[in-house]
Amino acid sequence: MNGRPVAAPRLRVDPIACDGRGLCAEILPELITLDDWGFPMIRDVDVPDDLRIAADEVVRVCPRLALRLDLNQAGARRDAGRPGR
Amino acid sequence: MSGVINGAVVNAPLGQLPRLLPAGPAPGLAQHLTRHGPPPGPLSDQGRAELMAEVERSGLTGRGGAGFPAARKLAAVRQSYRRCHTPVAVANGTEGEPASAKDKILLARSPHLVLDGAAIAADLIGARQALIVAPHPVRDVVADAIAERVARGPEPIRWRVITAAEGFVAGEASAVVHWISRGIPAPTATPPRLAERGLHGAPTLVNNVETLAHLALIARYGADWFRAIGTVSEPGSMLVTVLGAVRQPGVYETAVGTPVREVLDLAGGPSQPLRALLIGGYSGSWVNAETACDRPFSAAGLADLGAAVGAGMVAALPEDACGLAETARVARYLAGQSAGQCGPCRFGLDAIAGAVEQLAGGRTTDISLLDRWLSQVAGRGACGHPDGVVRLVRSALAEFADERERHASSWCCGGASVLPVPPGGLR
Amino acid sequence: MSAAAAGSALPMLWLVSRASGLALLAGLSLVMVLGTATRMGAAGQRVPGFAWEELHRILALFCVAFLILHVGTAILDPYVSIGWAATVLPFASGYRTLAIGLGALAVDLGGAVLLTSLARQRLGYRAWRAVHWLALLAWPAAFAHSLLAGGDLRIWWAALIEVSAATAVATAFVARLIQAVLNRSRHPRRPRYRPAVLDRRRA
User: Fold this and answer.
1) Which B residues 385-404 touch A at CB under 8 Å?
2) Residues of B in contact with C193 (CB under 8 A)
3) Domain termination residue (choose one: B292, B318, B344)
4) In whole angstroms, what is the distance from residue B390 CA to residue B305 CA?
5) B298: in domain
6) Which residues of B touch C196 (CB under 8 A)?
7) C186 at B interface, C-beta within 8 A
8) Is C125 in the A-facing interface, judged by CB distances under 8 Å?
9) Which of B204, B226, B248 represents a domain boundary (last residue)?
10) What is the C-alpha separation between B235 and C88, in angstroms, rounded?
């Protein structure tokens, strides 16, 4: 295309900040659905270009600022699945 | 077996246990030094590099449950060195798991080994203080051990003992840091990582106390000595808490990869015929007793059973106890232990515990709904707590399929409770 | 209010100032109600939750335009002497100090809310939220200013605007309060941690 390195934007939620208000799922139902308790489940995929604007809006609109768009390559959400104690 | 560390030749018995726990009563500083020799002194840059290489070669992994390579964690903190933010070393002895006692026993019986390890870790990362987070029953032992060291002469680092918070999630690394800094034993969101920005914004190294004890020995005797027992991919020894239907429940030290049957024999062997084992802790997995007994107690050995060594716990469930009832009690306890910060954990675990209780009570339960909740909750908290519950419940559903059928026909196996669940709780 | 100016200048500026002031009061009151609706989780089929939030934001920005009009015309009005400084420095005006001062106070507080909201992403949630509470002081200041500086309640529609604005904001406030109290009793937001009875730290 225009030679810029491909950034892989991924939408992530801070589960502690999130309060289950649900505005995100209203704006971007293609990527965000609500679980049985009203909290967002975000598909762990790169945000396609046609949804980029909506993704930016979702990040802006969240009343708790719990969403962010990670531009560097995704990794695991946390270190492994087992808690380190 | 002799190794050369920092130019000093040390001799150490090869491949012998116990390594971490002394045979007799807890040694004072003098006996500790007699038994193990002096720890490496303050390291030069060269010495640090050599020791880091040795730790990496030893293959030491975290003994707190996550099994993360110790050398990599040390390196991550070293790399995050920033001026004006001196790194901090934290020894985590919180052990929020009610059924596990290894960290308390280790601190009570080998405090100096843990302190040596903490000092070495602090030296490696360039920290000037080490914080020992000790559970209340053993806090004084640790404080006394530190006092002994301080009395002997000036210490290169500043020591602090902090009484550990109570609660299942209080032992999680970020929760420990949160507890130290703000008195709230709840995990924090992961970016930024503790290695980059932890306690008061400084790069923070959090190690389980057992990991540090192993580090103290590796620094003296070398990687080859450490690797002399255990398996090739998971070398060394580990502490295991064995409880339930065994003759002598307690904390024992064993080589990683020891057959599970032998691990149970350390505790006097089963006191009754066994139905199943809960391996790894309350966030671990149920496995069939017969199938598991021949497997090596290691990550590789248990992987295909869907289990992992975790925090080194084996609970033996006798045939006359009910795995579903035990799971229901533990699940309810774990749900109550949620920090309550993340919706899926706070609400989901409550729903899951309710469903498992229904199952155990022989009432009609919508398994597909339970399954749905298990998928919805996994991986959606700020820490691994919900994942642990999901693992526990899923393994219970798989292992106790027969019990489920019996319960559905309103027939309960009954039996006494095996797994300890603290009463009341924080909420 | 001696609007009957004996002078030659039509009180156009003054009229615009008064009108824009009333419009501003209505707008700000609606902003407060919309903000409360967002906070209460208003969301439905026809008006989704994010719509309330966006309306709140957009209307607030509109109010800035009204504010500029209101303040600008008041200053330019030759009939009264209010300097630029008095619009942001509370109680710096010699002319009707309290009334104008309250308006300046509203501008300051509202300005802080506005600026922090524009920079919300960079400030982080806590800082933004803390400043946003000032809206709860800004609106009463604006309302008091509207009564003292405008106060022509003999005109029926002016009185209607004042009363409606106050009722709307008060209702929204009370509703939110009730909801918060009910929520707290049903779902304590954060579990109460029993602080260690023992020493947490000792050197």
Assistant:
1) 385, 387-388
2) 165, 167, 183-186, 426
3) B318
4) 16
5) yes
6) 136, 163, 165-166, 183
7) no
8) yes
9) B226
10) 71
- B159 and B176 in a single domain? The answer is yes
Helix (H) or strand (E) holding C29: helix C12-39
Q: Which residue has the higher pLDDT, C37 or A81?
A: C37
A61 touches chain C (CB under 8 A): yes
User: Are B256 and B231 spatial neighbours (Cβ–Cβ below 8 Å)?
Assistant: yes
Which 8-state DSSP code applies to residue A83? P
Nearest residue, CB atoms, A26 vs list C39, C48, C128: C48
* Domain membership of residue B245 as a residue range: 237-318
Judge whether C44 is closer than 8 Å to chain B, CB to CB.
Answer: no
pLDDT in tens, B34-49: 888 888 888 899 999 9
Q: Do both B299 and B356 map to the same domain?
A: no
CATH code of the domain containing B398: 1.20.1440.230
Closest to B349 (Cα-Cα) out of B322, B323, B376 = B376
Mutation target among C45, C47, C50 for the A interface, most CBs of A within 10 A: C50
Phi, psi dihedral angles at B85 (to 5 degrees): -135, 80
C41 confidence band (pLDDT: 50, 70, 90): confident
How many Cβ pairs closer than 8 A exist between chain B and C?
42
Residues B89 and B178 in one domain: yes
Shared domain for B267 and B340, answered yes or no, is no
Does B62 contact A at CB distance below 8 Å? yes
Q: What is the ipTM of this complex?
A: 0.86
Is residue B348 located within the same domain as residue B258?
no
Residue A7 has what pLDDT?
66
Tokens of C94: 């010699």
CATH number of the domain enclosing B280 = 3.10.20.600
C3 or B52, which is more confident:
B52
Note the pTM of the prediction, 2 decimals: 0.89
Q: Do the beta carbons of residue C144 and residue C108 sit within 8 Å? A: no
Cα(B356)–Cα(B360) distance, integer angstroms: 6
Contact C124 A65 (CB under 8 A): yes
Instruction: Kindly state whether residues B301 and B351 are assigned to the same domain.
Output: no
Residue B255 lies in a domain: yes
Residue-wise pLDDT tens digits, B1-12: 344 444 444 555
B271/B403 same-domain check: no
pLDDT at B36: 87
